[in-house]
Structures are given as C-alpha cells and as structure tokens.
Amino acid sequence: MLYPAGIRTAVIPAVAVLWGALAAQAHAQGSLQPRDWDRAVALAQAPDLNPDPHVVEVNLDARVAPVEIAPGERVDAWTYNGGIPGPLIRARAGDRLVVHFSNHLPEATTVHWHGIRVPIHMDGVPDVSQPPVTTGGSFTYDFVVPDAGLYWYHPHVMSAAQVGFGLYGALLVEDPDDPVAVADETVLVLSDIGLDGKGGFEPPDSGGTTGMAFGREGNHLLVNGRERPRLLARAGAPQRWRVVNAAKSRFFQLELEGQPFTRIGGDGGLLEYPVQLEALVLAPGERADLLLAPKGAPGSDIVVRAYPFNRGFGSVEYRAVEDLMTVSIADEAPYTGAQPPAVRRTIEPTSTDGATKIAIEFTIAQGQNGAFEYGINGVPFAKNHPVTARPGETQVWTITNKTKWSHPFHLHGFFFQVLDEKGGPVHPLEWKDTVNVPLEQTVRLVVRYDDRPGNWMFHCHVLDHADGGLMGMVDVGVPHADHKH
Ligand code: C2O
Ligand code: CU
For the CA atoms of 151, 154, 159, 164, what is the dihedral angle to 10 degrees? Predict the structure, then answer.
C-alpha cells in the first residue's frame, strides 16, 4: 500500500523527498508489476462493515468447509469463513477492530490475536481471558490495534489440532505514514497441512508423545492455502512480501535460488535498519517484511525453496528440499528505475537498569510409562507457578533450552527485545513477540510491561510442544487466575 507522498515530505530528509516524488509517480502509474501479478496467492479480504474510517468491523465464522489446496486435492478443513487461510483483516494503526466471531466447528474454540497488544479479556486464551466459545456460540472481539505490522490470528484451544486443520489468518495493521514506497505488496501466509492421502487429515496425535516431542509437521507445504502457487514478476521491479509462518511446527528456511533480498521488518513492524539476506529462517509464529526485485530473463522461473532446517533431532535427516512457490519473470522489458531507499526506524533500546532477572529452563522428561512431557523448570504447564510482574516493570529473561529440540518462545500481550550474551541489545533493534530458542542454547530478552494487567501466557509456538506442557504464565499486576484446560 502506498500513501500520498505529500503527507511525509514535510518531515523527512531530502533524499526521501526525492523518493517521495518518485513514489508518487509510481503510485500515479500504479503497480510496476504485470497485471494480476499476485492473483494466484491474493488472499480474500474480510469486508469492513463499518462506514467509520477508524473502525474496522468484520464477521469471522469458524466452520468445516471443503478446500482445494492443489488442483483435485480436496479436504474438509477447519476454516475461518470457508477458506485456508482465513480472510486477510486489514486495519490501520490506531483503528478499532471489531470481530463478530461465531463458532460452527464441532469443538469449542477461541481466537487469539498473535502479537497485538490487546487488553487481557481480548487475548483469546480459554478460561484465562474468556470462556471458550462453544459450538454454536459467538463472541465479539473488540480492541484497538496500536502498532503497525503483520500479525495473525489462530485458536488457543487444542491449538496443534485446530491450527493444523486450517485455522489461521493474517491481520495486517498498516502504518498511515508508511515510509516504504513500494506499491506492489502481497501477504504470504506460510503453513503446512497433514493429509492422509484418502481425503482426510493425519490424526493430530500420530506417534503418541514421541510425535508430540518432535512436533508434528504437515506433509503439504502451503502458501496462502495453495501448493506451489506462482507469482508473476517484472524483472528488477521492487515488490514487498509480508510473510508469516502459521505452521503448527515447521520452521521455514527460504531461498530464492541465491537471489538476495532485504528484510525490513519483523514481528512488530519495521527494523532499526534493513538487512540483506540470501536465506530467511522463520520459526512458527514469526513474521518478516521483505523487499525484493527478482532478476531473470523473460519467461524464466525463480523457485522459492524451503530447505530443511535443523530444529533438532529428526528434523533434517532424510529430509528433502521442497519447492514452495515460483516467481515467473514476465515477458516484459526489465524495470530499470529507482529502487526504494533504505528505510530506518528509531527504536529505543529498552534499558535493563534495575530490571528483575527471570531465569527459566525448557525441559523434557520421560515418565515411567515412557511418555514424554515438556515443562518449564521441570514442571509441566498444568502445575507450574506463574512469573509475577507489575505494570511498568522491566524484566530480563534468560531462557535456557535443555532439550534436543528448538523452541520458538512466544509471549502474549507484550513485545520484547532480544539481548546478546553480554546483555546488550541485538542490532538491528526490533520488536519481537516470538523468538527461537535453539536446541541446547540460551536466549536473553528484555520486556517492559505496560499498564495492561492480566494473566498473560508464554509458550513454545511449536504447538504440539505447547500442548505437551511447554507453556507458562506471567501474572502482571493481578493475582493468578486458575488456568485449567
Ligand atoms: Cu500465536 Cu499463544 O499464540
Ligand atoms: Cu517447542
């Protein structure tokens, strides 16, 4: 999305003014890409039912519906509004979002707004922030979306099963003064799905607790619910990809046949400064904001491939490189105009002075019956004690992963910054809500709780691991709520 350059020109340096003028021109000309360049992946958008420009009001219905993930390959999936992924919800930072949610699934569910700084009663955690929405029931989610960025929504009841069956969607919160002057933008929801080859799903408990300990992956890779879709591109023309990993367990390690691209943003909006990459690793739950200008002869293809990523025992052995998506270079003269300049963002490093130190360990144990169970400091979720905090408090967390699998740590409700071994900020600075804690390693982060008291969950975003005990609570300024399941 591009906004009129005039809004920005008063406050930004000359080079950006120049780009602003170019961007305005590009905007006037519209897209630099071939017609319908992203039609094969374009997400259905939830219509905004509210005429107020600062209120986005949508309907979201969870129901079983037939979906076609590739020509002829159908399954009765669990969907939001009938599709995988659910509809793209689009709002602007500061807008109020009202979601009329109804549940027509055979099980209770909730909707969690991953990464959004919601009030606790909108957080979608069953029995903690709201009662589960039973079959035939409904719930209205109503909150302000304070921060620009790509977020996503998914259930928080039997998450591994429900997300695995298809329940996830993207929530794009746009910056009304977005400094990224690229007109061609597409949202890519990466996921996978486990099909049994007979028109049904692989059972979500396959392999018992050993399957849980690994984290079950689906056997079909999907981009916006499709297998191996195709984007059309004009060689050299900039495009922007907003990417979320919505898979229940799979890490995506992506390459574009060695072509470089630029990461400009992450979970909570833009980075302090852009970084050039040739490969991108996204753990489940993480997002990336990318700029690229694919090169190639007219008519040639660039295949976006997913490389096996070592997330622990069993994750790379005998695993093949898989094709995820194709970018086809259109039969048009290459674009030779300007590329967008580097966009910077001022992010203050969160001070660790006077911070409370919290140390937790991710652990796994095998009971006498041979069953695996994950835990925090050796204690599974059902029995562990919450971390306590006050609004305004800063905490430095040291998270040690003693297990043989990597665990993407996700904190509800608050952004954090990742710290290096010495406790200093990692650059480029960025606001994160999900960070991978690699197997047998330690990650440090700093979080400052703003004034939203409540019982906030943290957990591994490999959803089998979360269901298998790798979850905990931070009680911010309130006594602990009983978190039964
Ligand atoms: Cu996407 Cu509790 O998380
Ligand atoms: Cu995990």
Answer: -100
* Alpha carbon nearest to ligand 1 atom 1, residue: 114
What's the rounded Cα separation, in Å, for the pair 406 and 404?
Answer: 7
| CA nearest to 98, candidates 57, 60, 138, 130 | 57
Does the pLDDT at position 13 exceed 70? no
Is the pTM higher than 0.85? yes
More confident of the two residues 426 and 367: 426
**Is 407 near ligand 1, meaning CB less than 6 Å away?**
no
Is the Cβ atom of 457 under 6 angstroms away from ligand 1?
A: yes
Q: Decide if 255 contacts 278 (C-beta within 8 A).
A: yes
Burial 452-473 (b: 16+ CB within 10 A, else e): bebbbbbbbbbbbbbbbbbbbb
Beta bridge partners, 75, equal 67
| Cβ 90 under 6 angstroms from ligand 1 | no
Separation CA 424–CA 352 (nearest Å): 9
Q: Counting atoms of ligand 1 from 1, which one is nearest the CA of 115?
A: 1
Mean pLDDT of 289-308: 97
For residue 11, pLDDT beyond 90 = no
